[in-house]
Design goal:
By secondary structure, this protein is an alpha+beta fold. It folds into two domains: 181 residues, Beta-Lactamase; 108 residues, Beta-Lactamase, CATH 3.30.450.20. The strands form two sheets. Strands 1, 2, 3, 4, 5 and 6 form a six-stranded mixed sheet that branches. Strands 7, 8, 9, 10, 11 and 12 form a six-stranded antiparallel sheet that branches. Helix 1 crosses helix 2 and helix 2 runs parallel beside helix 6. It is globular. The protein starts with 13 loop residues before the first helix and ends with a strand. InterPro entries: PAS, PAS-like_dom_sf, PAS_fold_3, PER1-3_bHLH, Per1-3_PAS-A, Period_circadian_regulator. This is Period circadian regulator 3.
Length: 376
Amino acid sequence: MSRSKSQNPRGRTTGEALGKDSAEMWHQKHQLQGKYTETSHSEQQDRDRVFEELITVVQEMKTHFPSARHSKPSTLDALNYALRCVHSVQANSEFFQSLRQNNGAPQADVTVYRPEELATIASEHASKNTDTFVAVFSFLSGRLVHISEQAPSVLNCRKELLESSPFAELLAPQDVGVFYSHTAHAQLPFWNNWTQRASPHDLAPVKSFFCRIRGGDAGKPERLYGPFRIVPYLIHLHSPARPEPEPCCLLLVEKVRSGYTAPRIPENKRVFTTTHTPGCVFLEIDERAVPLLGYLPQDLIGTSILTHLHPEDAALMLAVHQKVLKLAGQPPFDHSPIRFCSQNGDYIILDSSWSSFVNPWSRKISLIIGQHQVRT
């Protein structure tokens, strides 16, 4: 008796069903491979198109590079220049937003100056310190509208280069944000308040900051960035080219020199203050620390003090913080000296006293205060 073939419900044999299913699977597989190949090819085409557009944009940016530059700008130069332009637009936007909040009108206390009067201001301040110069840039364009005669000698570059560049382009890239945060608003102290009021109690609040400014002529390898202390003021400039006074920022710029070279900072004045979180992170740096440590405040703020100490002194610093936490709110106490690594890699010895500030609401330590004197 012959064995009958097994059939599926539709009457197909098992072999026929398997053969058809296998064919369908191979068909689906080839379809997926084809779609994957098409997708990969499409993605590659998209990448190629984006790359071509990027090259075109970079080439366009290079054509807008400052003409004072002698060497051909690289792609990185063009991208950095574009980034500076973005920062400049953001700064101007913030300034105008502040003006709109003040009904769009310039402050009544701001004196309007003529271009020739800026030269008088510059000469008065430059004569007091050979490391100082005055720069005035427009909030509307970001470009310098005046720079004192002493600036080229301080920066070791040609005056034509300074006059043809926005001031922000002279700054080290890592300091551009600091510069705009201190100058891109309408709450700057008025220059006439600083010069005309007799009582020091009537002075507008003045806050200085630090930036590295480029020195040397364009295209030369010896161009370096040097540290400068900058004090900004708000003025308005009246020029024949504009019917309305132009809002400007007047900058008093002073070169920062090491506190250990002539003219040296006296030994009893080599002091500065720092504040830290309970976790040893820098919160604020006294500006007196700049010529003593070589760091600008923005170089240290947000970093751990432990990373700047001699490896053998890290345990001492941790012991200080533990003692401060234990003696919360108590008077300052002295502790063993610590070795701090300055910007040039040398270690200096700091004699320090420590205290804390306790938040009256949370009754927790908000910050730790260190008062330091450099040991000679």
